[in-house]
């Protein structure tokens, strides 16, 4: 989490503008790079500790069962080594994929494929051969893990 926030500060991750959903700035637009730009190293550490202590709640979302089945086999072949237990563990440092919001995963996979987000060296050869249909299958698989 700390590394991610620092990458936003350095604009090494895409700074996608989105609408603020609640609070006094609700309805305004911002992005993660703007949100973290003035944070100190100590601030980042405290924020990371807070979020790491939270329990991930899988989202209930629609999925296609046939695509999810195909996605499971793609996950086992290409993703399971780093995203263990079907992408459900945060402790493997690969990020939780199981039950993650489909729109978010679609966006991040797109950033990797388009070169807008640095892709880990061991992840690149796993993603590069995948077609759009494979990505859709993976997204449906992760959405099915509710």
Q: How would you describe the shape?
A: globular
What is the fold-level CATH name, i.e. the topology of the largest domain?
Answer: Cytochrome Bc1 Complex, Chain D, domain 2
- Relevant CATH superfamily of the largest domain: Cytochrome c-like domain
Helices and strands: which structural class? Answer: mainly alpha
Distance between the termini: 23 Å
Strand order of the largest sheet: 1-2
**What CATH first level of the largest domain would be assigned?**
Mainly Alpha
Per DSSP E runs of 2 or more residues, the count of β-strands stands at 2
Your description of this structure?
- The chain has 146 residues and is mainly alpha-helical.
- It has helices spanning 2-9, 32-36, 41-52, 65-78, 84-87, 102-114, 124-127, 132-144; strands at residues 18-19, 29-30.
- The chain contains eight helices and two strands; from the N terminus they run αββααααααα.
- The two termini are 23 Å apart.
- The protein has two domains: 2-52, no CATH class; 65-144, Cytochrome c-like domain (Cytochrome Bc1 Complex, Chain D, domain 2, Orthogonal Bundle), CATH 1.10.760.
- The model has no long low-confidence stretch (mean pLDDT 92).
- Helices cover 50% and strands 3% of the residues.
- The chain is globular.
């Amino acid at each position: 989490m700390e590394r991610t926030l620092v990458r936003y500060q350095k604009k090494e991750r895409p700074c996608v503008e989105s609408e603020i959903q609640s609070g006094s700035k609700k309805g305004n637009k911002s992005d993660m790079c703007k949100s973290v730009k003035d944070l100190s190293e100590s601030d980042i550490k405290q924020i990371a500790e807070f979020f790491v202590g939270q329990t991930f709640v899988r989202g209930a979302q629609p999925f296609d069962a046939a695509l999810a089945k195909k996605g499971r086999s793609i996950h086992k072949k290409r993703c399971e080594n780093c995203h263990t237990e079907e992408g459900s563990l945060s402790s493997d440092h690969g990020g939780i994929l199981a039950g993650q919001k489909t729109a978010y995963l679609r966006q991040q996979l797109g950033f990797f494929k388009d070169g807008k987000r640095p892709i880990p060296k061991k992840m690149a050869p796993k993603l590069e051969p995948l077609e759009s249909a494979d990505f859709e299958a993976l997204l449906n698989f992760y959405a099915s893990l509710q």
